[in-house]
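Issue 218. Parser rejects a valid record. Input:
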Amino acid sequence: MTAHDARDLAAKLLLDAYASGTPIAPLIQTFDGLSIEDAYGIQLAQIESMVQGGRTVKGMKVGLTSAAMQNLLGVRQPDFGHLLDDFFYLEHEPIPLAGRFLQPRVEPEVAFVLKRPLRGPGVTVHEAIAAIDFVLPALEIVDSRIADWKISIVDTVADNASSGGLVLGSTPTPLHEVDLRLGGCVFRRNGQVVGTGAGGAVLGSPLSSLVWLANTVGALGTALEAGWVVLPGAITAMQPVAAGDTFTATFGGLGSVTARFAAVDTEEEKQA
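Output the parser choked on:
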């Protein structure tokens, strides 16, 4: 099997996992010799298929920004994925699990909303700051199409950086009104504190993550577009999701954001 054929088949397996709701074995067990370059090719093949199917890219995310996650997967740099239009869920509205997510987890992040494009390579911190319209509190729903979350760096990159969805808070804050590096976060699941952290956990500052992303995708010919949302990385460890769960993240200087998951499948609710 050629490298091109392997990429195509891996992308199809992941797309089929979305459709069937059944996770697949780690790609590194199925295909010998997959590289990070191959993994990004597999990711982009899926994004192209999704866009051709009528979906729209609305932003990007950065993953593996903490030292703990990098050590776990044996890497020394983050990865990135794409945020599609149907990834966005409204705050406090019940989020269905059945038919949408396979094995979701939630983590708190600070979200950047851009007012102008960022085109790397060569983007500096001050250029990134100038491109930010405002900041929002956010909860990312990470998910994996790889069975039991047994991921390598190749698996998570190929799987769109384990993207699933996100919920944005409703109070925008200008960047100059908050210290993203020192700002703290308290993460609660069903009212119980399950994590605390500060923005400095994200590559020293979420702004560093934004700069890394702009320059990394810029070298590949992709710009971060005006109006896009960028998730720079998690502030605390992710938490598993069960039906009926409610998660809230409260950020110093940014306010809070809440994600509520449906207790039962929406189809069951309609038939009740």
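Fixed in the parser; the record now loads. Helices lie at 3-20, 27-30, 36-52, 67-73, 125-131, 153-158, 206-218, 266-271.
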